[in-house]
Design a protein that fits this description.
The protein is an alpha+beta fold. The protein has helices at about 30-40, 45-50, 125-135, 165-175, 255-260, 270, 280-285, 320-335; strands at about 15-20, 55-60, 60, 75-80, 95-100, 105-110, 155-165, 180-190, 195-200, 205, 215, 225-235, 240-245, 275-280, 290-295, 300-305, 315. Strands 5, 6, 7, 8, 9, 12, 13, 16 and 17 form a 9-stranded mixed sheet that branches. Strands 1-4-2-3 form a 4-stranded antiparallel sheet. The longest helix has 13 residues, at about 320-335.
Length: about 325
């Protein structure tokens, strides 16, 4: 079929043939899950239809969506057209913390997806940026990610850096790659760290069975070194407030590392097992069921970088959002040690 094995996934385009080799960490994965993982622009449902139509072959033979893969097998596919339109400008309010002719720093609210992805075609940060800045955004990230230099998880709030031109985008990306950009986070966690400050150095890779999660992994083609420094700001009865300075930028890094040391981010459903907290749980008064927080208590508080044009060091900070602030105040009132 003329497939090219191990093609760089970032360079793939619709209509391009490719062969993927199943890695040991992917042993036992369903075929549809495997493809949806490697090609996140396509939904799992879309991949099922493609497999059923005969557009995917495993070791030269047709397969079924539920087929369980084995390490070393070759999965052959010709990518179809991406089933979506590009993002459209939407009049979504933006909290712009800083901007000039070259870049901007915005305060992303919790619950907002940064760029379009399956299940989230509208209401994204990109749509808001296009409305507010028009065509004055870099195109380096591709048509679905104008201006986007880095990302935050959907339920993580806080500062995010936006490039308005391609040269500025490249220079900011170089700072991220050189780890000269300083990112500071604030988190409320369940449990108490053993130390007042520490550097967590644990490699992170894909979770072996749950596609949407990452995990501490020692081996595998996707495993990357990850380092997270934390400092305890306040201790409470059963909880703590942390200042976090990640030294690398792996997917879900802070959340995975904090869960690893036994102190998952509060209300982190994926890594902490709960998704919300009420005032009754903190005050120990069952009569007050006021919902305080319904998303992970993680906030990108500050970003520091060298301005690509002026050469000056800039530091931009986003205040704590009201939901995290309300939990912090309740902890100080009812759980102070």
């Amino acid at each position: 079929m003329g497939f090219q094995e191990d093609s760089p996934l970032a360079d793939l385009r619709p209509g391009m043939p490719v062969v993927l080799r199943v890695q040991p960490a992917e042993e036992g994965w369903r075929l549809d899950l495997f493809l949806a993982h490697h090609f996140p622009d396509y939904s799992r449902v879309h991949m099922r239809r493609l497999i059923t139509a005969g557009g995917v072959r495993v070791d030269g033979k047709g397969g079924k969506p539920a087929y369980r893969l084995h390490a070393g097998q070759q999965v052959e596919i010709i990518l179809p057209e991406v089933p979506r339109e590009g993002p459209h400008p939407e009049p979504i309010p933006l909290d712009i913390l800083y901007q000039d002719d070259y870049l901007a720093v915005v305060n992303k609210p919790a619950g907002m997806v940064v760029h379009p992805a399956r299940g989230h075609w509208s209401g994204t940060l990109v749509s808001a940026l296009q409305y507010h800045f028009g065509g004055r955004l870099s195109a380096t990230g591709g048509p679905t990610r104008p201006g986007i230099v880095h990302r935050l998880d959907r339920d993580t709030s806080g500062v995010i850096l936006v490039a308005k031109t391609d040269p500025i985008h490249h220079k900011l990306a170089a700072q991220f790659a050189a780890r000269t950009i300083e990112k500071e986070y604030f988190a409320l966690v369940t449990g108490l760290p053993d130390r007042d400050r520490d550097l967590v150095v644990e490699p992170i890779g894909l979770h072996p069975t749950q596609r949407e999660k990452m995990a501490i992994r020692r081996q595998g083609p996707d495993v990357r070194v990850a380092e997270t420094f934390y400092e305890v700001l306040e201790r409470f009865d059963g909880f703590a407030a942390l200042r976090i300075l990640p030294r690398t930028g792996r997917t879900h890094q802070i959340r995975v590392h904090l869960a690893h040391i036994g102190c998952p981010v509060l209300c982190d459903r994926q890594y902490g097992g709960r998704s919300q907290i009420t005032l009754a749980e903190l005050s120990r008064n069952p009569a007050d069921t006021t919902l305080l927080l319904a998303r992970q208590a993680l906030h990108a508080r500050r970003i520091g970088f060298i301005h690509p044009v002026t050469g000056q060091r800039l530091s931009v900070e986003a205040p704590l959002p009201t939901d995290i602030q309300s939990v912090l105040e309740a902890l100080r009132r009812f759980r102070k040690k």
